[in-house]
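Internal ticket #5521
Category: modeling
Description: The requester needs a full-assembly model to guide mutagenesis choices. All entity lines are attached below as received. Residue total reported by intake: 330.
Assigned to: D.W.
Attached entities:
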Amino acid sequence: MSKTTDAVPEIGSIEPNQHGYRSFTLGAFRFDRDEYFTHVAWPKGHHMLPVDAFLRALQRDIAWGFFYGIVNFDAVIGTMNHYGSVDLFAGRFNDHYRRAGLDHSERFTTPLIQRVFEAMLDDWTNAGFDPFASPQETGSAFGPKHGSNKEAITRHRVTAKRMIAAPGDEPLRTDDNGFPVNRHFHDVPQDKPDVRAEPGFEDEVVAFNLFAYLSRSDVTWNPSIVSVCKASLYCPTTEEYILPVIHGNDRVEWFVQLSDEIQWEVEDRDTGAVRARVTMKAGDVAAMPADIRHRGFSPKRSMLLVWENASPELPALYASGKMPPTPVQF
Ligand code: PHB
Ligand code: FE
């Protein structure tokens, strides 16, 4: 389907269901929640996801502005970013749904799908559950509706324009502004770099301790932009448990494992066929190809640098085959 819907929708049923939750519609899609599950229905099918996993994925899809390429919530449901509009799909990147003709996809303007997703996240997140936190560091998502957690779900991630700590850019997370060192990072040195600038350049030479900065991150699987050089974005993040989305790339993406270990499941972006299992230990570097999707597993909190090339022309270059999907041909 290629129709783009921008009509102001009824954002959701006014009356809560017997569990206390509102239902939401987007085009022909309908979303309901009960005590344990999110139910998604479309004209030719329906699907269930655990609600904690659904809210973790929904939170990130919203916070990242639908990210680069595809955000699969699981093997069936997800979004594809067209940078101005977004496809909501069911079974679109699942070989079996495709062959059976049970997949469905609809395009919405970004502000519309954003609004409905935000309303759903707000209504379905109970008091005590933080979708950005690791499972050990948050309460339960389950049960009948009880309260809300606006503070957690409206967090803004750091998006530097030059480099954090540079004049006019984002402040650092230090003890002073209330972010404690995470329980898994007590061994990370907190010393500050010794900067000796030539006289007259004191405002232009900036350095910060990235490990100390990351040791105080209160969220998981949420890259923040700490430096920008033209289209080159350094997006480090701290990871624990499972990446809540299966990310389908529309460009090459580099990973630098800064500490501990993450294992990645790498699949074909379009069919979901397994392609590789990558174990990354501290110091390992990987280039994730432009035609895959991946999900990370981090047994303990770890530090990962995601290096993105934000050039807007990249998706078309890869899609047209003008650029190979890997930076190196073996
Ligand atoms: C990714 O899909 O590349 C990704 C997303 C979030 C992270 C790390 C990697 O925290
Ligand atoms: Fe990715």
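Resolution: model delivered.
Comment from assignee: The helical segments are 51-63, 95-100, 110-124, 150-153, 210-215, 314-319.
Ticket closed.
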